[in-house]
Specification:
Blueprint: H1 3-15, H2 18-25, H3 29-43, E1 48-51, E2 54-57, H4 59-83, E3 91-97, H5 107-117, E4 121-126, H6 130-138, E5 144-148, E6 156-170, H7 175-179, E7 185-187, H8 188-191, E8 196-198, H9 204-215, E9 222-225, H10 229-237, E10 243-246, H11 247-253, E11 260-265, E12 270-278, H12 285-306
């Protein structure tokens, strides 16, 4: 098995067609089919299912595709590391930052600081949900991520950075805010009566909220699913419902809004922001440099805002 065969196989799976892959690779279609047959003979497994619609990987093909992505990425990383050995870190580093989190407000600082320290590194930033994160990290499409920690996932490791209580965020004229104007907490039972705007089900924050309610036999009063922070701001400002977030996220996402932020108690619900990295291969030199910047920016922001260690924010910041 050589890397050329693996790269051909990955291109076929990505293209969904041997014909399209042959055109993209500038390789004759029969020659490409022969390379796939050679792989199948070598591994003694059928890797692709062919039909008039194109090709689909078998279970064995999916497994090879995942490993091939990692192998090809390591080979490319080795080439880059050898070529730039002794020079300043350079290359492309991809990082995902969870929407609906304080971490998303770090984007400008990360870009600015990486650009200042490592002008030859290009940072690719995206927002992503925990449900698709593991495959993106394992396949090498992402180098790292700052997300709500979803629990143990094979192939990736999580380093908890922040543990916070969840808060109900509503308009100051919302009924739950007007009933007790001086309060700064709300019971989970009371919060369950509020219509909520939440992200989709594949978002870890949504799953935490639903589990907390289910554990207490409380209903979820879902008004709508919203992925856009500007849209969420407008909806809460119009007093059409509320949302549930950590306090730091509410402060970062709605800095100019006079929203009421009430800590959920009886019972309290907690979320974790974690740094996610692959557990099966080392980060590139460039990714390692960006990782240090991300940790430093997160630590500085939490210390400056809350005056506390970033691993555990106080219940009443």
């Amino acid at each position: 098995m050589d890397t050329r065969k693996l790269s051909y196989f990955v291109q076929i799976v990505d293209s969904g067609s041997i014909t399209k892959a042959a055109a993209a690779l500038h390789v004759a279609q029969p020659a490409l089919s022969q390379q796939v047959s050679a792989l199948e003979n070598d591994l003694k497994q059928r890797l692709l299912i062919r039909s008039k619609q194109g090709v689909e990987p078998t279970a064995a093909g999916h497994t090879l595709y995942r490993h091939a992505q990692s192998i090809l990425r390591l080979v490319e990383q080795a080439r880059q590391d050898v070529a730039t050995s002794g020079a300043a870190p350079s290359g492309r580093v991809s990082i995902a930052i969870a929407p609906y989190s304080m971490a998303s407000s770090l984007t400008p600082r990360i870009i600015s600081e990486v650009g200042r320290r490592y002008p030859d590194i290009v940072v690719h930033l995206t927002e992503i949900f925990g449900g698709v994160l593991s495959e993106a990290i394992k396949n090498g499409r992402l180098d790292m991520a700052l997300i709500y920690e979803p629990g143990k996932i094979r192939g990736v490791q999580f380093t908890t950075m922040i543990v916070e209580d969840l808060h109900l965020v509503v308009h100051p004229e919302a009924e739950v805010a007007r009933l007790s104007p001086g309060r700064d907490t709300i019971t989970l039972a009371e919060a369950s009566t509020v219509g909520l705007f939440l992200p989709e089900k594949n978002h870890t924050l949504r799953q935490l909220i639903e589990k907390g309610l289910d554990d207490q036999d409380l209903p979820l009063k879902l008004v709508g699913e919203v992925e856009s922070v500007p849209s969420l701001t407008r909806l809460i400002r119009a007093n059409l419902g509320g949302t549930v977030l950590p306090k730091s996220a509410a402060d970062a996402l709605f800095p100019d809004q006079e929203f009421k932020v009430l800590r959920i108690v009886e019972p309290a619900l907690q979320s974790k922001i974690a740094l996610c990295t692959p557990d099966h291969e080392p980060l590139s030199e460039a990714a390692s440099a960006v990782l240090l910047v991300v940790k430093e920016m997160l630590h500085q922001q939490l210390i400056s805002k809350y005056g506390t260690d970033p691993v555990q924010l106080p219940a009443h910041p």
